[in-house]
């Protein structure tokens, strides 16, 4: 793992050449078809050279969640082991990593009809009404959910509405309960290198080709209003530009700020992670050698 623009993709492609591993993408935007430039997705040639699971899996007419990732990742791990290879996860969507490592409660999936019903209630009755309803149903949420956090209030009510009563079905299973794990991350303690790389990469992203990519997404797909792609870095800013809300210069500046904030959040996650071996960006060759040794030792 590592922050955006840290060199994870090129490292993963090099590792794939050992012919001993399979790569699993841990990226909440690359999962979608036609979200290529804005997500810095590996090129078609790179994906031919080093295929990744969970890239170009679905279109933006569907919503892919951490729960989806958790369940699919476990199936992929089993299949990779059956082929006598080692699964290697690479990416920067920390919530996906967390769901895989810590396990997930066996919670119900999203129910769009019920969510729309609650959204209408929030408009007509006020969000406070939903919050009171939530507390009346389960008072434990008082300490964990802010009364103004509409997103979490709706999700909590959804869980209560559709959850099973069998608590045994909701126990978490951590990944290291099943497998031997080796966890590594690239970091940039000074943030100088990562900031420079972000600027360089963004200059290649904010192009007419990317604007066309977003136009095609908006024109060719029926994207749900609550879809996370609409708030994703680069895509959110491009949509604002296309809607005439910002000019080209501000499009770049807002994307730059959002990308830096994303890298900062990723770094915070990484620094709080347990059992994670850290390598500075300048040590990427050392990390590659370490990973190759681990991979070969498993064979």
Task: Give an account of the 3D structure.
It contains twelve helices and five strands. The protein is mainly alpha-helical. Helix 6 crosses helix 7 and helix 8 packs across helix 11 (248-272).
Per CATH, the class of the largest domain reads Alpha Beta
| Major sheet summary line | 3 strands, parallel
CATH overall fold name of the largest domain: Rossmann fold
Assign the CATH superfamily of the largest domain: P-loop containing nucleotide triphosphate hydrolases
C-alpha geometry: globular
List low-pLDDT spans: none
Task: Kindly state the number of beta strands.
Answer: 5
Give the tally of structural domains: 2
Beta-sheet strand percentage? 5-15%
What is the percent of helical residues? Answer: 40-55%
Secondary-structure element pattern, one letter each: HEHEHEHHHHEHHHHEH
Rounded to an integer in angstroms, the radius of gyration calculated over CA atoms is 21 Å
Distance between the termini: 23 Å
Name given to the CATH architecture of the largest domain: 3-Layer(aba) Sandwich
> Average pLDDT value?
92
Based on secondary structure, the structural category is: mainly alpha
> Biggest sheet, strands in spatial order?
2-1-3
Number of separate helices: 12
Family: Belongs to the IPP transferase family.
Catalytic activity: adenosine(37) in tRNA + dimethylallyl diphosphate = N(6)-dimethylallyladenosine(37) in tRNA + diphosphate
Subunit structure: Monomer.
Function: Catalyzes the transfer of a dimethylallyl group onto the adenine at position 37 in tRNAs that read codons beginning with uridine, leading to the formation of N6-(dimethylallyl)adenosine (i(6)A).
């Amino acid at each position: 793992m590592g922050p955006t623009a840290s060199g994870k993709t090129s490292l993963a492609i090099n590792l794939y050449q050992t012919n001993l591993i399979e790569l699993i993408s841990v990226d909440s935007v690359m999962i979608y078809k036609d979200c290529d430039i804005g997500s810095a997705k590996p090129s078609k040639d790179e994906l031919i050279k080093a295929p990744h699971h969970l890239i170009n899996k679905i279109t933006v007419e569907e919503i892919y969640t951490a729960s989806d990732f958790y369940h699919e990742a476990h199936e992929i791990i089993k299949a990779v082991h059956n082929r006598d290879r080692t699964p290697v996860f690479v990416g920067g969507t920390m919530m996906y990593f967390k769901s895989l490592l810590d396990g997930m409660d066996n919670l119900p999936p999203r129910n769009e009809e019920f969510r729309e019903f609650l959204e209408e209630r929030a408009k007509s009755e006020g969000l406070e009404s939903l919050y009171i309803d939530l507390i009346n149903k389960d008072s434990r949420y008082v300490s964990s959910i802010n009364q103004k956090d509409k997103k979490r209030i709706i999700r909590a009510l959804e869980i209560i509405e559709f959850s099973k009563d069998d608590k045994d079905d909701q126990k978490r299973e951590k990944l290291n309960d099943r497998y031997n794990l080796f966890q590594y991350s690239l970091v940039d303690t000074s943030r100088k290198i990562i900031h420079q790389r972000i600027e360089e990469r963004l200059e290649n992203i904010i192009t007419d080709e990317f604007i066309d990519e977003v136009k095609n997404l908006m024109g060719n797909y029926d994207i749900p209003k609550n879809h996370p792609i609409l708030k994703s870095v680069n895509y959110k800013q491009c949509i604002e530009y296309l809607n005439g809300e910002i000019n080209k210069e501000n499009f770049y500046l807002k994307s730059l700020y959002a990308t830096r904030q994303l890298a900062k959040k990723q770094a915070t996650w990484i620094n709080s992670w347990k059992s994670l071996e850290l390598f500075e960006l300048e040590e990427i060759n050392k990390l590659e050698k370490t990973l190759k040794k681990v991979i070969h030792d498993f064979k």
